[in-house]
Amino acid sequence: MVDLSALGITNLGYVFRNMSTPGLYEEAIRRREGAVAHLGPLVVRTGQYTGRSADDKFIVCEPSSEDKIWWGKHNKPFDPEHFELLKIRLQAYLQGRDVFVQDCYAGADPEYRLSLRVITETAWHSMFARDMFLREFDPEVLDRFEPDFVVIHCPQFHAIPEVDHTRSEAFILLNFAQRLVIIGGTSYAGEIKKSVFTVMNYLLPQRGVLGMHSSANEGPGGDVAIFFGLSGTGKTTLSAEPDRALIGDDEHGWSDRGVFNFEGGCYAKVIRLSAQAEPEIYETTRRFGTILENVSMDHDTRRLDLDDSSLTENTRAAYPITHLPNIVRSGMGGQPDNVIMLTCDAFGVLPP
Q1: Per-residue pLDDT reduced to its tens digit, 166-189
Q2: Do residues 79 and 61 make contact, with C-beta atoms less than 8 angstroms apart?
Q3: 299 is catalytic
Q4: Catalytic site residue 343?
Q5: Residue from 194, 244, 252, 323 carrying the catalytic annotation
Q6: Choice among 17, 57, 316, 323 that is catalytic
Q7: Which listed residue (250, 252, 255, 290) is catalytic?
Q8: Which of 231, 309, 312, 343 is catalytic?
Q9: Residue in 53, 195, 236, 315 annotated catalytic
Q10: d(Cα 128, Cα 97) in Å, to the nearest integer?
């Protein structure tokens, strides 16, 4: 059992802490959160939101971080009083409910690692956190685990814009003073991942580390390459090169010690994925422990149709990086020898 009362979360039903992947499968199926496809992946639906809702993401404007944030279109301020009132309603919503807790890390380099606690109301989102972040395998360390940051994710709790001063019923609110992220109104699991990326992008530059939306891999001789590019330009695909070991496919830090992965998993687009073009990523869609978001499945045969975009073009697979055959297990590499800018978008223009 873990005490969550310091977060104002009390009178809970049952707290499932650091459940194994098979245990989370059982709970997800029992709660009708998803279905098991052929060869074992868990297929889920995210409902109305099949991608990130960037316009619903806000940062609480408070004294400890106010002068360190570039406020504007992408970093929108949120009033601290309204944050507190919404948090109180969220705390009340959780009373009597079961929750799932995953204690994990962001940042493969121990010097810059962030201890992270992800609290969810669904089993499959807890499994997503287990797939995406770095695990702690020592039970004694887990017993005394103290998080640096907490993420609370409740997709069935909706904001009331007229009351909560949010843009819609969905919200992603970051409070750096309280070291807390609260997410509601959206089941899209990528909000958990990207919120942690935002936290790392805030904390690490203050320690002289560059946070990067990039993939990275390492050659047989130890040469490191970084791939920058917008979502969908091929970072994941190009970094999963059979002759090079993958460091990570999306989020990295670059320090004086070299490059390190923020994550312990991958979150790959799988629309029209083929065994011929991307064999390693394709195989992850046929593995136990992979979560498939909004992927079409025949409920009789449990076979997938990766070409079906009827729900969204943004179909996703979340899987632990160990599902791939050629990886850098430490998640760390040296100083990059090559920096590649990917411009496979509508315009083909290099970023400024």
Answers
A1: 999 999 999 999 999 999 999 999
A2: yes
A3: no
A4: no
A5: 194
A6: 316
A7: 250
A8: 231
A9: 236
A10: 20
DSSP secondary structure string, 164-203?
H--SSS-EEEEETTTTEEEEES---THHHHHHHHHHHHHH
Residue 141 vs residues 123, 137, 260: alpha-carbon distances, Å:
23, 8, 22
Alpha-carbon span 5 to 91, nearest angstrom: 10
> Which pLDDT tens digit goes with each residue over 273-328?
999 989 999 999 999 999 999 999 999 999 999 999 999 999 999 999 999 999 99
End-to-end CA distance of the chain: 50
Structure tokens at 303: 């076979």
| Catalytic residue (choose from 82, 158, 213, 287) | 213
Pairwise CA distance, residues 145 & 159, whole Å: 31
- Is residue 316 among the annotated active site residues? yes
* CA–CA separation, 118 and 114 (whole Å): 12
Annotated catalytic residue 194 = yes
Helix (H) or strand (E) holding 154: strand 149-154
Single pTM value for the model = 0.95
Give the contacts of 88 (CB within 8 A, at least 6 positions apart): 8
DSSP readout, 254-287?
EETTEEEES-SEEEEE-TT--TTTSHHHHHHTTS
H-only helix segments in 97-246: 123-132, 139-143, 161-164, 190-203, 235-239
Q: Has 250 been annotated as catalytic?
A: yes
- The catalytically annotated residue of 17, 46, 50, 52 is 52
Q: Which of 12, 7, 301, 299 is nearest to 180 (CA)?
A: 7
Check if 269 is active-site. no
